[in-house]
Write a structure and sequence with these properties.
Blueprint: E1 3-4, E2 9-11, E3 17-19, E4 27-33, H1 38-54, E5 59-65, H2 70-81, E6 87-89, H3 92-99, E7 114-118, E8 123-127, H4 139-152
C-alpha cells in the first residue's frame, strides 16, 4: 500500500545536506546501502545506467549508506565507483525508522541494499522486503517500474 515518504536528510561527504523532499516532482529510487557490500556496489552501477537513460525524463537515484563508519567511508566509495547521483549517509536508526524495519539483537536479519521507489508526488510505491527484492534491484524490472511512473506523471504539453 503506498504511503507518504517520510522526510530524510542525506549528508554527502562534502557536508552538503539534501532533503529527500527537495526531489518532489521526480521519480526517486532510494537505495539504502553498505559501502562494503558487493551487491550494493553493483546496484549503484544499475542506478548509474538508469540515471543516464531516464534522468532527463525526471528520474533521480539516491544512495544512502548506513553501515558502521559510513560517514567516513562514503567519500572512498564515491571515489572508487564514481556514481552519477548523490551518495550520502545517515544513521542506522534513521534508516531502520524510515524503512519501518525492526532492528536490534532480537530482530530478524534483513539484507542490503534496501530499495525504495517513490513517485513524483512523494509516495512510496514499492519497497524491498527485509530479505531484499529482486524486482527492485534487477535493471529491466526497475526500468519498467520507473518508466511507468515517469509516464503516469507527465506534465501537460510534453
Amino acid at each position: 500500500m503506498p504511503r507518504k515518504a517520510p522526510e530524510l536528510t542525506v549528508v554527502e561527504p562534502s557536508g552538503k545536506q539534501t532533503l529527500l523532499s527537495s526531489y518532489r516532482g521526480k521519480v526517486v529510487l532510494l537505495a539504502f546501502i553498505f559501502t562494503t557490500c558487493p551487491h550494493c556496489q553493483a546496484e549503484c552501477g544499475v542506478m548509474d545506467k538508469l540515471q543516464a537513460d531516464l534522468g532527463p525524463k525526471g528520474f533521480q537515484p539516491l544512495a544512502v549508506a548506513f553501515n558502521d563508519n559510513a560517514g567516513m567511508l562514503v567519500s572512498g566509495f564515491v571515489q572508487n565507483f564514481h556514481p552519477t547521483f548523490p551518495v550520502g549517509y545517515a544513521a542506522r536508526q534513521t534508516v531502520t525508522d524510515y524503512l519501518q524495519l525492526a532492528d536490534g539483537p532480537n530482530a530478524p536479519i534483513w539484507n542490503v541494499p534496501q530499495m525504495v521507489l517513490i513517485d513524483r508526488k512523494g509516495m512510496i510505491v514499492a519497497q524491498s522486503g527485509p530479505k531484499g527484492s529482486e524486482e527492485l534491484q534487477e535493471e529491466n524490472s526497475l526500468r519498467k517500474k520507473i518508466t511507468d511512473l515517469l509516464g503516469s506523471g507527465k506534465k501537460s504539453g510534453h
